[in-house]
Amino acid sequence: MNLLAFRILDTDLEVVSITSYPTSICEGKAASFVVTVRNNGPDHVLGAKFHLDLPAGLTGSTVTPLVTAGKALLNSSNLTAAAYDATLNMNNAAKLTFTINATVSTLPTPTNPDAAISTDPDQECNAVPSGPGCNNIKDVQINVIPEA
């Protein structure tokens, strides 16, 4: 009988941070998102899958990977309008930073998840999913009293 010795590799891949620049984004303006990934080891990883859902309403997206610590390799990647996928090799303690640059084409409003922007705030407020009654429109009445 031949015995086979083997060792199970142990890796801990972590998304360290996701940061957006600027922190407040307007339609038609450029935006950047920086995602940092680290292999906390203790072993190296080969062929790890990385997936990032991109916010809706972005156009012209590009992704630039950069090894910021240790040794890492981007084997393959695929960018669509909705997501970024990559296959990674990373040594223990390696860090990869992905910078996503895009233009914000549309921002859905909180009560209107459609890309089309409502022109009637009362109609939008009373629509699905909120239903009748608005909690984001307030009225104020000002009485002007002539000076005596």
Whole-number radius of gyration? Answer: 24 Å
Average pLDDT over all residues: 78
**What string gives the helices and strands in order?**
EEEEEEEH
* First and last CA, distance: 111 Å
> What's the β-strand tally?
7
Oligomeric form of this entry?
Answer: single chain
Fraction of helical residues:
under 10%
Quickly count the helices. Answer: 1
Fold-level CATH name of the domain at 13-104 = Immunoglobulin-like
What fraction strand? 35-45%
How would you sum up the global shape?
Answer: elongated
Description:
By secondary structure, the chain is mostly beta strands. It has a domain at 13-104: Immunoglobulin-like. It has 1 helix and 7 strands. It has one helix at residues 121-125, and strands spanning 13-21, 30-39, 45-53, 58-69, 72-79, 83-90, 95-104.
What key phrases describe this protein's structure?
3-stranded antiparallel beta sheet; single chain; 45% strand; 4-stranded antiparallel beta sheet; mainly beta; 148 residues; elongated; disordered C terminus; Immunoglobulin-like
Topology overview:
Blueprint: E1 13-21, E2 30-39, E3 45-53, E4 58-69, E5 72-79, E6 83-90, E7 95-104, H1 121-125
Please summarize what this structure is:
3% of the residues lie in helices and 45% in strands. By secondary structure, the protein is mainly β.
